[in-house]
Write a structure and sequence with these properties.
The complex is a heterodimer of chains A (about 325) and B (about 450). Chain A has about 325 residues and is mainly alpha-helical. Chain A folds into two domains: about 210 residues, no CATH class; about 100 residues, Fusion Protein Consisting Of Minor Coat Protein, Glycine Rich Linker, Tola, And A His Tag, Chain: A, Domain 2 (2-Layer Sandwich). A three-stranded antiparallel sheet of chain A has the order 2-1-3. In chain A, a hairpin with a 5-residue loop joins strand 1 and strand 2. In chain A, helix 2 packs across helix 11, helix 5 crosses helix 6 and helix 6 runs antiparallel to helix 11. Chain A is elongated, with a radius of gyration of 30 Å. By secondary structure, chain B is mainly beta. In chain B, the strands form seven sheets. Chain B has a five-stranded mixed sheet, with helices on one face. A four-stranded antiparallel sheet of chain B has the order 9-8-7-30, with no helix packed on it. In chain B, strand 5 and strand 6 form a beta hairpin. In chain B, helix 3 packs across helix 4. The chains are: A mainly alpha (about 325), B mainly beta (about 450). The interface between A and B is large, with 77 and 51 residues. Strand 3 of chain A pairs parallel with strand 1 of chain B, so a sheet runs across the interface.
Chain lengths: ~325, ~450
């Protein structure tokens, strides 16, 4: 009893959580901000560009959607391939074993029949370019009826002489059907497990990154070279507060927004409280803001605007006191 | 089952951390910069008609010299100005100033009104952010051009460094002349840049170690009257001299407490030299150290709670810190060499000193616990550091060796930034030693 209620409870929670994940607009909107965190980890371990890592989260989300659409009915598998063809990615991913591909592969696994199913679709599209319903039907039908019809026709041609054999064939058919159903069950079970594992691994990655995020600031989806270039550029414009008492505590965070050309639109001090009360800090903050405008535009990669449109620059003059 | 549970936990973790994800932002730490003077444009001050006035030129010149001498500013030659400003009230066309690479632009007006008073107004603009930073104005006697210019320079300095300026300050020192055997030493006072020089004593008596009071109205110094050294007080406004106290033995190395109501000094009695404090009103003295060694050169911390001094009680001349009442004496210098003339920074964070090691003299600074020693200047004889009131600049004197015939021995006052850069000699009419920097003038 407890177990059942627990399963129900867990199931409901998961569905609510999943719906919230996908459905809440605010979460969707913030997803881009999540990318830098993922990349940060990548940058530390791999000294190459983080573009690949930056793509991962996106595919994960697509995968989740695909998994969901698959789960309810088995037929959907054929549908996704139709919907996806326009996107080149799904085609490439099957090679690497992403979840999406599974949707396409599944029919093939069951029997070699998918072949006719695949062969059929091309024909209908010519007459009816879009209807997905027609596409689904052909795949479903070929699974068993054709077999039965062929066998029965053969039996009629062989007449009664093969009655015994007929019954044998029928038994075989029954066995085959049973095997087929069994295989279908296993396939569904396997599919469900794989989908669950995929989702879990995606969520684990997201959670792991989220946990790590606060510990390790720095770096977004930009590559190390991008970051270094920006850092050097800004450093060349900055006059640190040399000789100022307590320079090691004058760390000023400036929130900077950029336009698509890398031009500084706004530069604001993060710690407004200290700005209002500490004269020395105010001067250091003014210099940091001047630095940002003096350095404008920043040498940012123009194709990654979404990732660098907003920065935090931490001006840290501790090196003066070393 | 386990998988579902795991899923639930992970989902919950994700949701719990969404706040962080949502606020994650790309961060780049800038940990290096360009240590270079701040480029700034000081426009000649204009008269009421928008034309550059003679007095306006002088003011701009003095401000430029002040800022440049600090080593922290690089005034741009006015010949490079595309469109010299007409008045401080008019917002500059920043596109004409940005190409000069300046961060600040000082615009002002100055003229002598019908009553013979100098009227001054100024605005400091931030050329990069394109807003005004500060501004002000006032009037003064016509002969106060230098002082009012120093005050404006102080404003500019403060806005770009965060520290108070030190241009409107004075320096008292010992002016020296004559050969080694017949050296004439007298008190002299000047602006921090060497201008407005004035001798305070005639030279009849030998004088040493002058020190300003916190109000900058009095100077305590050591005067050898009838070959007996004692601490005297000189009142700048009246020129009146007064011996402080009357003790058996000699007193020397005086320095005021930050509050101004006490004076600390050394008193030599019966072969022992200890540190005493004196109440300036009653002239009552209180002994702070009691040792068979020589304790001298005491200097208060800015809050008056501690005193740093040098003593040979450990076998060699080293620096010690104690509470203002003489308790908790502890040594702070442990490096090789001898240490002398410690002076606590007005900021309170470091102590300047003279060091003798390897046949050389040095001026250095260390943290108040003795750590972080840095040597800033060196020479045959380098001694007597004194702090600018903002604690960013040190002044001291350097002496060259005397020749066998008694000539030579050139002695000059220098100043240096605490970073160890920008050492500059202060031009004086004669040789100069033992400088003491005044507080900000009021």
């Amino acid at each position: 009893m407890d177990r059942r209620s627990l399963i129900i409870s867990v199931g409901l929670h998961v569905s609510v959580a999943t719906l919230a994940w996908i459905g809440l607009p605010s979460i969707k909107r913030d997803l881009p901000a999540e990318q830098p965190i993922v990349v940060m980890e990548m940058v530390q371990s791999v000294p190459t560009t983080n573009l690949t890592q930056g793509d991962k989260p996106n595919t994960a989300k697509k995968e989740q959607k695909a998994v969901k659409s698959k789960k309810p009915p088995p037929p959907p598998p054929p549908a996704p391939p139709r919907a996806k063809p326009p996107a080149p990615k799904p085609v490439a991913k099957p090679v690497s074993k992403a979840p999406d591909p599974k949707a396409e592969i599944l029919p093939q696994k069951i029997t070699p029949k998918p072949k006719p199913a695949i062969a059929q679709p091309p024909a209908p599209p010519k007459s009816k370019p879009k209807t997905t319903a027609t596409l689904k039907a052909p795949k479903r039908l070929p699974q068993s009826p054709p077999k039965r019809i062929n066998k029965l026709a053969r039996q009629k041609a062989l007449q009664k002489q093969r009655e015994d054999a007929l019954s044998g064939v029928m038994q075989n058919l029954a066995k085959a059907k049973a095997v087929s159903e069994d295989a279908e069950k296993k396939r569904r079970e396997k599919e469900r497990k794989e989908a669950a594992e995929t989702l879990t691994s995606n969520l684990t990655t997201a959670a792991g990154n989220a946990i790590r995020a606060p510990e390790k600031p720095v770096v977004g989806p930009l590559g190390l070279s991008d970051i270094d270039r920006i850092r050097q550029h800004v450093s060349s414009c900055w006059s640190p507060p040399i000789g100022t008492a307590g320079a090691n505590t004058l760390i000023v965070d400036i929130i900077v927004t950029l336009d698509r050309d890398g031009k500084v639109l706004t530069a604001e001090v993060d710690n407004k409280m200290r700005l209002a009360t500490d004269r020395t800090y105010r001067v250091a903050a003014d210099e940091a803001i001047r630095t940002m405008f003096k350095c404008s535009p920043l040498p940012v990669p123009l194709d990654k605007y979404e990732q660098w449109k907003s920065f935090i620059f931490g001006f840290d003059p501790k090196f003066l006191t070393r | 089952m386990m998988m579902f549970l795991r899923l639930v936990i992970v989902v919950a973790a994700c949701f719990g951390l969404f706040g962080n994800i949502a606020h994650a932002q790309l961060r780049i730490d800038i940990t290096e910069g360009q240590v270079a003077p701040t480029p700034i444009a000081i426009a000649n001050f204009t008269g009421p008609d928008g034309v550059v006035s003679e007095v306006g030129k002088q003011i701009a010149q003095i401000i430029s010299e002040d800022l440049e001498s600090s080593g922290l500013f690089a005034p741009v030659d006015s010949a490079a100005f595309i469109e010299p400003p007409k008045a401080p009230s008019i917002r500059p066309n920043f596109t004409n100033w940005s190409p000069l690479g300046v961060k600040g632009l000082l615009v002002g007006s100055a003229y002598v009104d019908s009553a013979g008073m100098l009227q001054v107004e100024f605005v400091l603009w931030d050329v990069v952010i394109q807003r005004n930073i500060t501004g002000g104005g006032g009037n003064a006697d016509q002969n106060a051009i230098r002082r009012i210019s120093h005050q404006i320079a102080d404003f500019v300095y403060e806005e770009f460094t965060g520290d108070r300026g030190y241009f409107d300050t004075r320096v008292v020192y010992v002016a020296e002349s004559g050969s080694q055997s017949r050296r004439l030493k007298r008190l002299a006072i000047m602006d921090q840049d060497g201008h407005n020089h004035q001798f305070l004593t005639s030279g009849a008596d030998l004088v040493l170690t002058p020190r300003f009071s916190p109000t900058a109205n009095e100077i305590a110094y050591l005067n050898y009257f009838n070959d007996e050294p004692n601490v005297y007080l000189f009142e700048i406004a009246t020129g009146r001299t007064e011996r402080l106290g009357s003790f058996p033995g000699m007193t020397f190395a005086p320095r005021f407490a930050p509050s101004g109501d006490k004076l600390i000094m050394s008193l030599a009695q019966n072969g022992m030299t200890d540190i005493y404090e004196m109440d300036m009103r009653t002239q009552a003295i209180n002994r702070l150290t009691q040792s068979a060694s020589i304790d001298t050169s005491p200097s208060y911390s800015p809050d008056g709670s501690k005193i740093v001094f040098n003593s040979d009680r450990g076998g060699s001349q080293q620096l010690y810190v104690m509470d203002a009442d003489g308790a908790n004496v502890r040594r702070i210098s442990f490096n090789q060499g001898r240490y002398a003339t410690p002076v606590w920074s007005p900021r309170g964070d470091i102590i300047a000193f003279t060091k003798m090691a390897n046949g050389q003299f040095y001026i250095g600074v260390m943290n108040v616990d003795g750590s972080g020693e840095r040597l800033l200047a060196s020479g045959f004889l380098v001694e007597g550091p004194t702090w600018a009131p903002n604690g960013r600049v040190l002044m001291y004197f350097k002496q060259q060796p005397f020749e066998t015939d008694g000539s030579g021995g050139d002695t000059h006052v220098y100043r240096i930034d605490i970073t160890g850069f920008n050492e500059k000699r202060i031009i004086t009419p004669s040789d100069a030693s033992d400088p003491a920097w005044s507080p900000i003038l009021r």
